[in-house]
């Protein structure tokens, strides 16, 4: 069921990223934070074991669904989808945007989602320099 929800949300978030300017979509991301340095994300709160399990399951569902869409489900729609599912599950997380230069010197962008030590989406991020982050945590 989680893969189906992720698949549907990937379609919605893909449409949002195509149809709306970033300044509108950014309101879905949470509270803006500054990254802690090159390749880093702000440190999300330490999670309880059950939240770590939820974050891993959501990451798996989003990555699995993304390989099965007839449209392009790149890092940004995946990050938005993971962020919405994590929020629904009340799991604190951080969405981070990063940049790097490729072999030809062109600037490339990437986005990833972390929940404590779990990389929910975005894969390896060591070669990326974090330039902006958005955090979300449930209010007590």
Description:
The structure is a single chain. This protein has 4 helices and 5 strands, in the order H-H-E-H-H-E-E-E-E. It has a 5-stranded antiparallel beta sheet. About 40% of the residues lie in helices and about 25% in strands. It has one domain. The chain has about 140 residues and is of the alpha+beta class.
Widest sheet: strand ordering: 1-5-2-3-4
Nearest-integer average pLDDT: 89
H/E element sequence: HHEHHEEEE
Helix content: 25-40%
- The tally of structural domains comes to 1
Structural class: alpha+beta
Number of helices: 4
Q: Topology, pairings included?
A:
Layout: H1 2-19, H2 22-25, E1 31-33, H3 49-66, H4 75-88, E2 93-101, E3 107-115, E4 118-121, E5 129-136
Antiparallel strand pairs: 1-5, 2-3, 2-5, 3-4
Which tags fit this structure?
McjB_C; alpha+beta; single chain; McjB-like; 5-stranded antiparallel sheet; 140 residues; Lasso peptide biosynthesis B2 protein
What can be said about this structure in brief?
This protein has 140 residues and is of the alpha+beta class. It has helices at 2-19, 22-25, 49-66, 75-88, and strands spanning 31-33, 93-101, 107-115, 118-121, 129-136.
